[in-house]
Write a structure and sequence with these properties.
Layout: H1 10-31, H2 51-59, E1 65-70, E2 75-80, E3 91-99, E4 104-112, E5 118-124, E6 127-133, H3 138-153, E7 157-162, E8 165-169, H4 173-189
Antiparallel strand pairs: 1-2, 2-3, 3-4, 5-6, 5-7, 7-8
Helix pairs in contact: 3-4
Length: about 190
């Protein structure tokens, strides 16, 4: 045994250092892009609510709402206390629905004293838009909510058009504040406040 050949030659040590440091740098760089990872579950996450957001809503924000527990649907409905309640005029209330079994939250436009379809007219800074709505599933209500969100945040004037008749919608100061509160609370539930 004349002499043992060393496995870790200086050249091999240099190659290992390069490999280890480049691998660590790559992991560090990719960790900044963690939210862009692929979602291969096939699950619709449009309505998903994190436990912390749900608990915050139920323990802090829900004081502004009237609760209705619907055991048949397995959901809890939250209607704002400052909404307009009338038996004569058509109204459209924005309602938050929590589904604890699926950890989801939905927004629902609840029509009273009228029949679908309806139209919502918004007037903001001289621009008028009209949105047709004929009820629908959770996605239809969410899409209408997203379309109305800039008008809600911008303090627009709203009208509810049923057939050929037009009615003021969310016209009072309390109603406008309630509408903004509902929109903020729903976006916070979905963790989309930005």
């Amino acid at each position: 045994m004349a002499g043992r050949d060393s496995i870790l030659t200086p050249e091999l040590v240099k190659v290992l250092k390069i490999f280890i440091f480049s691998a660590l740098a790559l992991v560090l760089v990719l960790s900044f892009f963690n939210e862009y990872r692929a979602d291969n579950t096939g699950e619709d996450r449009s309505f998903k609510v994190a436990d912390s957001d749900r608990i915050y809503f139920q323990n802090v924000r829900a004081i502004n709402y009237e609760r209705e527990i619907r055991r048949d649907a397995g959901m809890t409905l939250f209607r704002h206390r400052n909404r307009l309640e009338t038996d004569t005029r058509p109204t459209l209330d924005l309602v938050i629905l929590l589904n604890p079994s699926k950890d989801e939250a939905y927004v629902y436009f609840e029509l009273a004293n009228a029949d679908w379809p309806v139209r919502i007219q918004t007037s903001l800074s001289g621009n008028q838009e009209i949105f047709d709505f004929a009820n629908g599933n959770n996605h239809a209500h969410l899409e209408l909510f997203k379309k109305l969100l800039p008008a809600i945040k911008g303090d627009a004037e709203f009208k509810l058009i049923v057939g050929e008749k037009s009615f003021p919608l969310w016209a009072g100061e309390e109603e406008k504040e309630a509408l903004k509160t509902i929109a903020e609370d729903y976006l916070r539930l979905l963790a989309k406040t930005n």
